Amino acid sequence: xxxxxxxxxxxxxxxxxxxxxxxxxxxxxxxxxxxxxxxxxxxxxxxxxxxxxxxxxxxxxxxxxxxxxxxxxxxxxxxxxxxxxxxxxxxxxxxxxxxxxxxxxxxxxxxxxxxxxxxxxxxxxxxxxxxxxxxxxxxxxxxxxxxxxxxxxxxxxxxxxxxxxxxxxxxxxxxxxxxxxxxxxxxxxxxxxxxxxxxxxxxxxxxxxxxxxxxxxxxxxxxxxxxxxxxxxxxxxxxxxxxxxxxxxxxxxxxxxxxxxxxxxxxxxxxxxxxxxxxxxxxxxxxxxxxxxxxxxxxxxxxxxxxxxxxxxxxxxxxxxxxxxxxxxxxxxxxx
Length: 336
What we know:
Strand order of the largest sheet: 7-8-6-9-10-5-11
Number of helices: 12
Number of strands: 11
Order of helices and strands: HEHEHEHHEHEHEHEHEEHEHEH
Radius of gyration: 22 Å
CATH architecture of the largest domain: 3-Layer(aba) Sandwich
Shape: globular
CATH topology of the largest domain: Rossmann fold
Helix content: 25-40%
Structural class: alpha/beta
CATH class of the largest domain: Alpha Beta
Number of domains: 2
């Protein structure tokens, strides 16, 4: 993309990332570059080997910040920041504005401008939304029953954590359902192989975290399952938006346990309509849905932005240091 957009700008650029031989990347850096696109781990490796100096960086861009946190790059990012000049422009892009993103932004942005572009707060009419109240311990069994009895051949299942992805994938395979998990701990090669197998029909079920599934383009995907509801309401719209594309119909099934009711209410507030909650015959839950669930209501990006604006200059309770950096004010480097 950088080469395409900068074709007539006479800018030298390079891309570096892990999982491949570093020598071609090092050769591309020998004469210096104007724009460097890098993954945090490989960047630190080459800085440590003396192949890269960050002393003259003018602009730092953290793209897909939520995905980087999900993939475990938080510590790497914190190691990179002190290597940069104090005076610089900082830009952070994130599809969601969770508490973790809010804390990351507050750790190095000074009095930032918050911009939201085209927020997704509605679901496609082509997507049939089904919500079932199921005990947590019965969810895996319900998923297996749905896939087998419905003879579903292509299903994308969303989980909150990497370990949960692995566990469910293993359970499905033990029941004779081909499945693969994709998340931040999987190598790029493993994720590519899993996705290719899913698209070709060799893998019936893809189990993924929200961030690992970012950018997946799966034409005519018929079924999406929310094994666990997302904690950020907008993620619900992102998830079910994987199906019902290009005029095709799709089904989004959400399995709701008693503790997730507050999350449903946050989603309903975002969608501005109620979700009909049903019970599956043979899997009747042992308890009733209660307002007293342990989960907090799903937070919308708008609420997170408001909270961030109120707290971005408050001290960190762990360090008693201000979140913002007094060394750099992004507004002072704004160009006309």
